[in-house]
Amino acid sequence: MEHRHLGRSGLQISAITFGSWLTHDSSAADSAKATLRTALDAGITTFDTADVYGRPEFGAAEELLGDTLHGVRRESLEILTKVCLRTGPGANDEGLSRKHILESCHASLRRLRTDYVDLYQAHRFDPRTPLEETMTAFADLVRHGKALYIGVSEWTAAQIEAGAALARELRVPLISNQPQYSMLWRVIEAEVVPAAQTAGLGQIVFSPVAQGVLTGKYLPGTQPPADSRAASAKGSAFVGRYMSDPVLAAVQRLKPIADEFGVTLAQLAVAWVLSRPGVSAAIIGASRPEQVAENAAAVEVKLDDDALARIDAALVDPVHGDLVERDPAKTARPFDVMPAWR
């Protein structure tokens, strides 16, 4: 497994990072633990979760991760979690206030069965709390050894710049951003990536296979498989944006490129993400162990300039034009208008 520095920090993380959004909850604990063990066997050392993942009623994914990793040498792991989204009924059970950050961190540490997390991330930007309050709370966690580094997720370029300025003043190691990024969703390229690189932040990207669309399992003119994410109420809320026939046809045009490299479409999609400037790691989610092994192998795929150009060409439709979403304005989605379970 390849390891890369996260931004300009000294921290190295596995280029394939194992995530637990949508795949790890108490209803499928045995399967989730099996995929986690497969990830360890594949050399993955970095595990990303959040206090809201897995529900009931919040913290289930952290508990599962903590139980599965218990007994593994802690120094050999990088454990990442997040804070911001609603985790209870109280007025202070969401956001990036000092109260919610500190209380949430302590609760996450208990569930993860660890004394510290390697990276503690602001799950979204909180427009209702002064940024100084948020960054000072993070600084205190770092000073007390509860978090070694700080990161953000889905922040705009302006928010990253403001947070990085305060981090420098407070001497807080703000080193990462966690955005959505794939061949089909490139909204971070114009503004977020340059701002993050200037500030020394690396990208730990999620949804590199566009919620499964870039695996090629969804075909134009057909209904999604009954057991697929697109067929579920929760999954379809995210995968639905890609389910048009022009996009699904474009994905099929990528298959000859994957075949030339001797890889699956999923591996091609992950390899593409890992080839992009500023990307430190790609988060994979898996419900079955074989999916972990497949995606982990993508680190060995090195795409040349010709392949990258052909990928871009395949994603242009003769009638509808460029099928890639590039609008920087779609980076931002305030936490207070998001579904609580995300």
UniProtKB/TrEMBL annotation:
<comment type="similarity">
    <text>Belongs to the shaker potassium channel beta subunit family.</text>
</comment>
<keyword id="KW-0521">NADP</keyword>
<dbReference type="InterPro" id="IPR023210">
    <property type="entry name" value="NADP_OxRdtase_dom"/>
</dbReference>
<dbReference type="InterPro" id="IPR005399">
    <property type="entry name" value="K_chnl_volt-dep_bsu_KCNAB-rel"/>
</dbReference>
<dbReference type="Pfam" id="PF00248">
    <property type="entry name" value="Aldo_ket_red"/>
</dbReference>
<dbReference type="InterPro" id="IPR036812">
    <property type="entry name" value="NAD(P)_OxRdtase_dom_sf"/>
</dbReference>
<protein>
    <submittedName>
        <fullName>Aldo/keto reductase family protein</fullName>
    </submittedName>
</protein>
<keyword id="KW-0560">Oxidoreductase</keyword>
<feature type="domain" description="NADP-dependent oxidoreductase">
    <location>
        <begin position="16"/>
        <end position="314"/>
    </location>
</feature>
